[in-house]
Amino acid sequence: MAEPVDSYNVDARSYETLYREEQLDKLKAVLKIGRLLCERILDVGCGTGLLTKRLAKRADFVVGLDVSIGMIRHGGRKGKVNFVLGDANCLPFRDEGFDCYASFTAFHHFNGTKAAKEATRVVRKRGHVIITLFRMVAQAQQEVLEREEGLKLLTKGDAGKDILLVFMRAR
Ligand SMILES: C[S@@+](CC[C@H](N)C(=O)[O-])C[C@H]1O[C@@H](n2cnc3c(N)ncnc32)[C@H](O)[C@@H]1O
């Protein structure tokens, strides 16, 4: 894990300049499906909070978690977002504390099995897990979330350069 975190700490200054439009396109695709109207959202691997701050307009309580202090710091004004330094593979939150777990272009950095277990644990029953991820890892990660975690796939589609997967925690 040290490698991506270190590089994001260094790249934090240029991240939004380089990826702002690309990431906003992904959020647009997610908002189209309309499952993000909820009270408590957790954005995992939130980076500078580029998308987290926009999610905060749609929810009462938003937490952005990232393992890179550089990315979190670079985000600037936080508005009503609560930023937490932490690891997607071992989330510092109680069971079923969120209506929605979201993660944009970050899951390829996580331990797929551990992060999937954590995503399922922190979302309430009938809550949503919404992930955009690189195409080459999307199918394998979908299978982990469905088979190992029992999540129900509701939507699969394009989110800009990523694949969008939307699941519901059925049990
Ligand atoms: C490509 S950036 C995406 C940032 C943000 N989601 C966005 O759309 O702008 C990937 C982020 O994942 C974070 N990350 C990598 N490994 C992580 C881990 N184990 N737990 C939490 N965040 C992690 C990195 O620090 C980085 O900020």
Which keywords apply here?
alpha/beta; single chain; 171 residues; Rossmann fold; 5 helices
Description:
The chain has 171 residues and is an alpha/beta fold. The chain has five helices and seven strands, in the order H-E-H-E-H-E-E-H-E-H-E-E. It has helices at residues 2-32, 52-55, 69-74, 112-122, 135-148; strands at residues 40-44, 61-66, 81-85, 98-104, 123-133, 151-159, 162-169. The structure holds S-adenosylmethionine. S-adenosylmethionine binds at residues 1, 4-5, 8, 23, 45-47, 50-51, 66-68, 71, 87-89, 104-106, 109-110.
- Proportion of helical residues: 25-40%
Low-confidence runs of at least 5 consecutive residues: none
Task: Please give the CATH architecture.
Answer: 3-Layer(aba) Sandwich
Structural class: alpha/beta
- Number of DSSP-assigned strands: 7
Query: What is the fold named in CATH at topology level?
Result: Rossmann fold
Spatial gap, N to C terminus: 31 Å
What is the overall shape? globular
SS field, number of helical segments: 5
Spatial strand sequence of the major β-sheet: 3-2-1-4-5-7-6
Q: Kindly give the count of domains.
A: 1
Largest sheet: 7 strands, mixed
Brief characterization of the structure:
The chain has 171 residues and is α/β, with parallel strands linked by helices. It has a single domain (2-169), classed as 3-Layer(aba) Sandwich (Rossmann fold). Helices cover 39% and strands 30% of the residues.
